[in-house]
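Protein modeling request. Please complete all fields; requests missing the sequence field cannot be processed.
Requester role: graduate student
Desired output: 3D structure, token encoding
Chains: 1
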Amino acid sequence: MSWLGEAPLLGSLAPEERHRLEALTPLSLPAGTVIFRPGDPAQGYAVVLSGRIDVSMTGASGREMLLYSVEPGQSCVQTTLGLLSDTDYSAEAETTAPTRLVVIPRPLFLDLLDRSAPFRGLVFGAFADRMGLMLKLVEQVAFTRAECRLATRILALSEKGPVHATQSELAAQVGTAREVVSRRLEAWARKGWVRTSRGIVEVIDRDALDALAHSEM
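Delivered output (217 residues):
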């Protein structure tokens, strides 16, 4: 069975274009696999079929910040920019769950981009969506207090149950220091909003966190 059946967004391509892509072999990567690091050249365009890849950047101080995650149907801004402008990566990408993906080699990617209007629309549509999210991230980091961003993130992560993440991981996801996350969680636990244990945050009072998350919006 062709892997293209797992990538419905590519269904609009012409038969010849689909045939060229069908020749590519999917890769299965375990969680914790580094896809690229700062300074690496972009080798190809990744189509994520399942799983998740987090793209983050580390500052001179050593503080890490999650820029975005790539899941099925989404694109990687860093990769698209690298392939189009022949520039190296400035961030790091790592799988955070078992991930299955297909890498479209750069020559094939550029040829399809030149010849296929549907493929071009898919790539730039995904790029535009991702850039919109990136601008929203910049706005949040610049104009929203860290505790509001943390409340928003914990609410999102806790929709299916307790949040399994370290304080360092949460800090990277909201663009702040681990110490800030630690102090906020301790304060919220004293108020009865959350219950914490090692690597786990359980939301007790969603209304209180939601009010805080929207206090600067």
